[in-house]
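Quick note —
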Amino acid sequence: MSNMKQRRARQKKDEAPGGTDSNDSLRVHTYAGIQVEPNRWIIEACEEAKRAVKAGGGPFGAVLVQVDDETGSIIRLWRGRNRVAESHDPTAHAEISAIRLACRDLGAHDLGRIGSEAGSSSLRNATSHCELYSSCEPCPMCYSAVLWARIPVLVFSATRYEASHPDVGFSDSGIHEELMRGYTDRSIRVSQSICQITLDPFEEWKRSSNPRY
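Predicted structure written out below.
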């Protein structure tokens, strides 16, 4: 049995009525119809995750590839790994690290449509975009970063449920739940303080010629 078939069989067992997970219906809805065959980029992302563990970090890796829109060929790639403990930076997740590297090298913040003028690009009269391959389903922060960067393609391998297994211990379910609550019900104290210049930055923005994004 192939690795994908084994994976699907295991997920089906977990998601079946009477399974061990109380969120069976949510799992079925979340992952239904998104399975694709593995390619070299998802394998490299998983290898990067293994290297992250060996380097003292969390078990997460990512590969961001730049794709020529006309030919579909890969122009270049960036690798990211979890460096939270290494850099003492709670935002240094694999996906964030890869996105930061790409944006820095390309001199762009929109990775969904990269022009030929982008730094270090071999393109001359065409456009390109980036696709992200992650060893694990991105957390809410990283998924938000993918959206902000306008990356149109995301492929992940392990799920957040597999990452939250007690023997692994990386659960972001608390964040998902937190974002669904009103501010008065959240785990940290959140307040709003309105002052005389609260809206002034927005007025400055309206009058400015700063690039819109």
